[in-house]
Amino acid sequence: MATSQDDMNTKLTFRLYKDGETNEDWASWSDKIFNEDTSHKCPTYVHRTPPCQGSCPSGEDIRGWLDIVRGIENPPEGMDWEEYAFRRSTDANPFPSVMGRVCPAPCQDGCNRNEVEDYVGINAVEQFIGDTALSNKYKFEAAKEDNGKKIAIVGGGPAGLAAAFQLRRKGYGATIFENHATLGGMMKYGIPGYRTPRDVLDGEINRILDMGVEVKLNTWVGKDITVDQLEKDYDAILWAVGTWTGRKLPIPGADKAQNVLTGVDFLEAYNDGRLQLVSEKVVVVGGGDTSIDVASVARRLGHITEINESDRPENIVLGHTAHDVASSATRQGAQVMLLSRSPVKDMAAAEHEVNDALREGVDIVDRVNPMEVIHDDKGRARALRVQKLEDDGKTPIEGSEYDIELDLLVSAIGQGGKLEGFEDLGNDHGFIDADQHYQVPGKPGHFVAGDIVRPHLLTTAIGQASIAVESIDHYLKAENLGKRPKVDKHHFNLLNKLRETGLEPKDYTHESEWGTAAAEWAVHNYEDRSAHEIIPADELFLGHFNYTPRLKRHEDVPSADDVLGHFQERMKGLSTEQAREEADRCMSCGMCFECDNCVIYCPQDAVYRVPKNQHTMGRYVATDYARCIGCHICADVCPTGYIDMAMGE
User: Fold this and answer.
1) Element (H, E) at 203
2) Is the alpha carbon torsion for 530, 534, 538, 543 positive or negative?
3) Is 9 part of any domain?
4) Residue 127 has pLDDT above 50, yes or no
5) Where are the beta strands (DSSP E) in 529-586?
6) Contact 373, 251 (CB under 8 A)
7) Backbone angles phi, psi at 116, to 5 degrees
8) The whole model's pTM is what?
9) I need a surface site. Which of 76, 166, 331, 623 has the fewest CB within 10 A?
């Protein structure tokens, strides 16, 4: 049956050559293939980092755990694949349930499958792994023996908790000092519970604490305990204090009115249960994920018509009082407007979060620049004067100023640190400097990770914590830190896999023969470039992959009419069958996924499957170089780019 024009235009998106292009190298296929051994090159099996992992700030072995879920990589004896996928995932990031829900997924933006039809739903599968782990009560294991060294971790957010996890795995004692009443940091106080369900977040936190992590809550280092005391009591200090100071609007009148708040303060008051309603007209200035969360929370909370002065949201947020009448009052929907300098398509917030906010009734006005806060006769903000901008989001349009009426104004334009008690660690911008190893320059024994280095994603903070722990380990062992790898990730390690499956090479013994092809102390015709190279789509054989639409999670995003009081979780997980089906769309870039193309198409039968008792992930095929003529067909038909014509260079 012929392919329809519609299918040709909308489904079969991969094309090696575009209309009008010619490829002179392949003018004659027979001349290229049947030309004997003139290339002097034979296949080498090369492991490279896939772009999903290269785009992941915490460096997860995404391809690895997708291959486990889909059934290509098998777990060790006595472990089910669900647990094995969890172990591989959390080697880099101990929060798969949380990340699967809220991470904006730069891994999916980088996914090579985008060149075929659509990215792999990495977040959806990660949520499945995390939720299954919580359901099955999987635990983390600390090192079998403590090494006697103790590390102080200042801050119990994503960076601090991830650092505690990695430290305990290495046998270090870890004590978290947290100035809030509970752990979680911005995962708990900066993200609404309908995005990070509290039972999920607490479950993943408690799994880390169960490794033997000591916690001191309601403790501000620099006030309740001095830095000098920490330096005496601990072998190293990791600063993971986050950024809890919201940036105020740098315009006239913004610092005078009490009803002008920051997004950080607004969300903290909501997430700790103090803030239960907002005003009738709320204006949020921003464009990033924090501004979206503020606007969405405001739409859910709504307002009440008759409100006492003490119940105004600014008084609650600033800690002057607490709501005690909101639950019994009849609420109405709040009018919520989000202002952005950038066009909507260029906003820093994740695209699906912007779309959700629009569906929930948030009015997003782009290409405007706040100019001045206008006050009423009582000194409260009553309007925000803005100026329209050109499509570039930068150039003002003369004479375009107008006022937006409001009852509450929230600034969500950036954050900085609260460094009271340890100001000498900070720089001029309210952050803490870090070198490539996440050491604090000029402060031996002090390390830093998370937003206090530079505000970014949760996954970024987790990745920095992992590197900082490695640096602490080297520092306390008096080892040279050297240079970080070019591709600084948690890579698949073939030697570890061989050990796991009982196929570890034998100890080296000196042999007089030059050849090593039959030696059992070497891993033959394999090269690991994962620390140096990320494999692009043009090194894959994309024509191998059929059009397979992404299997999307169901999202419970309320409409504008239903959003008031809607605090149910939005992101619904995949079933086991759905998770395996979606994982099967992974193209396993840079690693063999056992498709047999190279074996089938080799005209010399030079490429062969290794014996079953020698087979494991990454060791599925080998080459008989006595038969190979260097025709490079195996490399051309390898979907994953795992084969290079390099032997003989």
Assistant:
1) helix 198-209
2) positive
3) no
4) yes
5) none
6) yes
7) -100, -60
8) 0.92
9) 76
Contact at 8 Å (CB) between 585 and 113? yes
* Contacts by 499-505, CB closer than 8 A, 24 or more apart: 500/76, 500/616, 501/76, 501/616, 503/614, 503/616, 503/619
Mean pLDDT of 155-181: 98
**Bridge partner list, 619:** 616
Q: Tell me, what amino acid is at 269?
A: A
Burial class of residue 5, CB neighbours in 10 A (0-12, 13-18, 19+): exposed
Same-domain check for residues 299 and 411: yes
Closest listed residue to residue 96, CA positions, set 215, 203, 240, 213: 203
Residue that terminates a domain, selected from 416, 435, 463: 416
CA distance 223 to 152: 16
**CB within 8 A of 617, min separation 6: which ones?**
67, 72, 73, 74, 492, 494, 497, 591
- Residue 31: the pLDDT is 58
Position 5 scores a pLDDT of: 47
**Residue 317 structural domain:** 246-416
Mean pLDDT of 600-619: 93
How does the average pLDDT of the chain come out, rounded? 91
Q: What is 377-425 written as a DSSP string?
A: TTS-EEEEEEEEB-TTSSSB-TT--EEEE-SEEEE-S-EE---TT-GGG
Q: Is there a single domain that holds both residue 211 and residue 251? A: no
Quick one: tokens of 149? 């060294």
Q: How many whole angstroms separate alpha carbon 47 and alpha carbon 64?
A: 12
| Structure-token pair, residue 380 | 């409260």
Strands 408-411 and 281-286: parallel
pLDDT at 523: 73
Contact 365, 338 (CB under 8 A): yes
Closest CA to 528 of 499, 485, 482: 485
pLDDT tens for each residue of 3-52: 444 554 455 556 656 666 655 555 555 555 555 555 568 899 999 999 99
Q: CB atoms < 10 A from the CB of 199, how many?
A: 11
Question: Could you give the strand order of the β-sheet that contains 408-411, starting from the edge strand earlier in sequence?
Answer: 260-262, 408-411, 281-286, 335-340, 363-366
* Same domain, yes or no: 305 and 160: no
Question: What is the tens place of the pLDDT at every residue in 476-526?
Answer: 999 999 899 999 999 999 999 988 988 888 776 666 555 566 667 667 788
235 and 268, same domain (yes or no): no
Domain count, the chain: 3
Over its C-alpha atoms, the chain yields an Rg (Å, rounded) of 28
Question: What is the pLDDT at residue 308?
Answer: 78
What is the predicted pLDDT for the residue at 11? 55
pLDDT in tens, 407-459: 999 999 999 999 999 999 999 999 999 999 999 999 999 999 999 999 999 99
DSSP secondary structure code for residue 342 in this structure: S
Mean pLDDT, rounded, for 257-270: 96
CB atoms within 10 A of CB 550: 15
Residue with the two structure tokens 């501000």: 220
CATH number, domain at 424? 3.50.50.60
Instruction: Report the range of poorest mean pLDDT among 141-155, 236-250, 497-511.
Output: 497-511
